[in-house]
Structure formats: C-alpha cells, structure tokens
Design brief:
Number of strands: 7
Largest sheet: 5 strands, parallel
CATH architecture of the largest domain: 3-Layer(aba) Sandwich
Number of domains: 3
CATH topology of the largest domain: Rossmann fold
CATH superfamily of the largest domain: P-loop containing nucleotide triphosphate hydrolases
CATH class of the largest domain: Alpha Beta
Length: 333
C-alpha cells in the first residue's frame, strides 16, 4: 500500500492490526509511525495503552507477549517497535502475526532495508496487515517532491529555488522537509519561496552554489565559474568536492545523452532523461555548447577527480578546494 492511502485510511479510522513500515527512505516510515502514535489513542489512554520498544534494546518474545495483552479501559492498544531492523529473532513475531488481536495495533519500523518477503513473518503481515515499502526519491525527482510538499501546505516555490535546494540538500527527505518547514514559517506572508528567501533563511548563497555553477558551466562562462569555484574553495565545509562531482557528473551525463536522442523536444528530453522540465531546458541549452567528444572527455575528468578526492593519484598536501579549481579549469579548456 502507498503512503497517502495509508494516511487517509487512518484518518477514516480504517485501522489494521499490523503495519510493517520498511525501506531505504526513513521519512515516510517516520511520518506514518508518528501519525499513529499521535492520533490513534486519546491522550488519556496513551499512558496505559501505548508502548514504544526499540529493536536493539528489546526482544521479540516480550513484544509478542505485549501484543497479546488486552487494552486497559480502552478499545485498543498501540505498540510501536522503532529500529525493528535491529530486533534479534524478529521471526518470533510470526506466530502472533498469523493470529493478531483486533485490539492491538503493532507498528514495525524496519528502516533502511526490507524484510525478506519469503519469511513466515512477512507472509503473515501481508495477509493480516499492511506492508509499506518506502523507496528513496531520486534526486532528479526532488524538485517535483518539493513542489508537492509545498502545494499541500498552500505554498509555491520558483523552479530556481527548488533546484537550489536540491543541489544543496540532496535527496534526504527528512532534511528537505525540515528546511521547507523553516521557510514556510519565514515567508508566511508571501506564500512563495524564492532564492532570496533561501539565502536569507538557510544561509545558502543564491549566487555561489552548485546550481549556479552548473549554469555557468552550461554557458561556458569562465569568469562566473571561476568566481563560484573560488568561493567553494574558501568555504569547503558547505561546498565539498564530494557534493560537486556527483552533481556535475549527472549534469554532463545528461548533456551527453541528449546528443543521441532523436526527439530533442523539451518534453521528450525531460521524459527520456527523467528530469524536471526546468532542468531539461537547462540541459538542452547547455548541450548545444558542448560536442559529444568534449562531453565524453569531461565525464572522464570527473571520474579522475573523484578518485583524487578519495586520495588516489594525489598527494595529501593538495586541498579539495585546489582539486575543484583544477577540475573546473580542465572542464572549461
């Protein structure tokens, strides 16, 4: 079952006896689990009927026994197992999952991986409860995710601001949601988030950032690219080479792929390369300034400096700021 139907069912009081919340992206797991903790029981009932276990510090037998207990002066009890992936002998819960009590809601937060679907426990939960698998959001989908997150809260964001946040935060949804919530509070009188708001409230420069570096390289603007990379060198903590290389690798790889598409319309480029239309437009414009041969060379340069950033074929005396400057020089010349 997907995230939204689960939340909507919970709001309608359609409640299942077991929820297995698993997968690589913890954000949605936390959202569902927190909703259940906050809303299934009235505050007056939580003291006796809501229990939280932590996988590393608990054992499956104790959890199973707790699930078999009847609620005290209430319709149901809620048992949440956080970090269930660390619970030893979790398969012990299979016997309970095969015959769960209707008065118990068991929530298993199984983060960063998935329970083996071939096990008795997984099969029992699939039959008698809900299994939700939280997939990582790919970085190219993040601007759309940001748009949707803000739209649900009656806010909008400019494409430039969405790309700026994506390049700075990456696809960590928890971190992105946290920063968006800060921005919502800060710009509540305008309801529209711009790069100016991000610079003022998050501290990310609207002029010297990865998004603007991409644009400068796409335009082959040597002066602007050098300005930005100098700023990166002076601020290595917030602009590490380990973030720069993957971002530029994706950018130049998309340009390289663009040259081999038969249909080079903006809509088809966005669909084929799996990217936001705003980003696709930038790729199309930039690709016209680079030949496939040069792009192939640039991808090789990025691989070379990825290795150097990890200590291969370089002396420890070379700073990551200097490596970034060398890399950008080779890309542009």
């Amino acid at each position: 079952m997907d995230f939204e139907p689960i939340i909507q069912n919970l709001k309608k009081k359609i409640i299942h006896p077991i929820y297995l919340l698993q997968g690589e992206e913890p954000y949605y797991i936390d959202e569902i689990s927190n909703y259940i903790e906050r809303n299934l029981l009235p505050e007056a009932e939580k003291g006796f009927n809501q229990t939280v276990f932590y996988g590393k510090d608990s054992n499956a037998v104790t959890i199973a026994e707790s699930c078999l207990r009847f609620p005290m002066m209430a319709q149901r009890q809620v048992i949440v197992v956080k970090e269930a992936q660390s619970l030893a002998k979790i398969e012990v819960l299979a016997s309970y999952a095969e015959r769960p009590l209707a008065s118990t809601v068991l929530v298993l937060n199984y983060k960063y991986k998935a329970l083996d679907s071939r096990t008795k426990l997984a099969k029992a939960i699939k039959k008698n409860g809900v299994i939700f698998t939280s997939e990582k959001v790919k970085e190219w989908k993040l601007p759309n995710w940001i748009d949707s997150y803000l739209a649900a809260r009656d806010f909008t964001i400019t494409p430039q601001a969405a790309q700026l946040l994506t390049s700075y935060l990456g696809a960590d949804l928890g971190k992105v949601a946290n920063e968006l919530n800060k921005l919502i509070i800060a710009v509540k009188n305008t309801n529209k988030i711009t790069p100016d708001h991000i610079e003022k409230n998050i501290g990310l420069s609207k002029e010297y950032n990865l998004f603007e570096l991409q644009n400068a390289l796409g335009e082959r603007n040597i002066f602007k690219a050098n300005q930005i990379i100098q700023y990166f060198g002076a601020n290595p903590t917030t602009n590490p080479i380990q973030r720069t290389i993957p971002t530029l690798f994706g950018f130049f790889s998309n340009m390289f792929a663009y040259h081999f598409l038969k249909d080079k319309s903006e809509g088809n480029v966005a669909a084929q390369l799996g990217m936001h239309p705003f980003a696709a437009k930038n790729v199309i414009t930039a690709a016209k300034k680079y030949t496939p041969t040069k792009l192939y060379e640039i991808i090789g340069i990025l691989r070379e400096y990825d290795l150097k950033s990890k200590g291969f074929d370089t002396s420890g005396a070379v700073s990551t700021g200097d490596l970034q400057k060398e890399m950008i020089f080779k890309i542009l010349h």
